[in-house]
Amino acid sequence: MTRYAVLHGPRSGRRGAGAVGEQVVEQLRAAGQQVHELVAATVDEAREACQGAVRDGIEALVAVGGDGVVQIAAGQVVGSGTALGIVPSGTGNDNARSLGIPLRIDAAVATLLSGTRRSIDLIHVDPLDRHVVGSVPCGLDALIAARAATLPRWLGAQSYTVAVLPELVRLRPMAYRLELDDQVLELDALVVAVCNMPVYGGGMRIAPDADPGDGLLDVIIIKPVGATSAVRLLAGVFSGRHSNHPSVRIERARRVSVAGPELVAHGDGEALCPLPVDCSVVPGAIDVLVPAG
User: Fold this and answer.
1) N or C end of the chain: smaller count of CB under 10 Å?
2) pLDDT tens-digit profile of 255-276?
3) pTM
C-alpha cells in the first residue's frame, strides 16, 4: 500500500480540478490505497498543505490541475523522498505532455498506481526563490501566456493559439542581455525561453530536444522576423520543426540570466516577476511518477 496525498482546488463545475480531484481520490481508495485529501482555495493554502503532507512522510504527492498546480507541488517535494504524481486537469498540461503522462483521468490514475519513478531537474528562479518545472518564457511567449491567462477556461490549450494574433499585431523586437554560464549575449529577439521540458504553451514543442534529466537548460532564442514569418514559425513550433529555422538559436547552460524589456517572466503558465531573472538548473531535484516502460 502506498500513502498518497492528493492536492486539488474546491469543487467547481464539470471537469473542474475539484471534481477531478474527488474522482482521483475515489479511484485510489477503490484500489486499496491510503489517501489524504488536500483541498486548497489559495496558493498559500496549497503550499502549506503540501509542506505538511511531505513532513508527514507521504510517499506520493499528487497534483490535480494545470501546470501551475504541478509547480506548487513540485516545489514542496524538493529534497524529500516524496514522489510527485500528476493528473492533468488544466489549460495547457504541458509538463504532463513532456513527461508522457496520459491526459485521460483513468490512465493518469493508472500511472499513479503502476508507474515508475523518474528523476528530473527543476529550474530555480531568482529573485523569487521559486522552482519551475517546465519553462520560463521571457519574450513574446510571455506576453502570449499572460493574454492566454485572461481567456475563458473552456478554451483549454486553444487559449494560447487565440492569444497569439493580438500579440503578433503588436510585434516588435526587444533588446536582451543574456548570461549563459560564462557566455554573454546582447541581441534583439522576439522569443527568449529558458526550458527544462520540451513542451509549453498548450502543446508547442518549443525545445524539442530538451531533456529534463540532463542537468542543462535549453535556451530558445527567436530573432526578429516579420509577422508572416512569425506565424509560420509558431505553426512549426507545434511539431518542433522550427529548430532548424535560421532565425532560431538554441543554447544550453546550467545558469541563465535574462535582462531586457519591461515585461513579466512566466513560469509553468503563471506570472513570476519582471525581468531580470536568474534561472539555474537543479539537477535531479525531484522524482515524478511516469508510465512504466
Assistant:
1) C
2) 999 999 889 999 998 899 999 9
3) 0.89
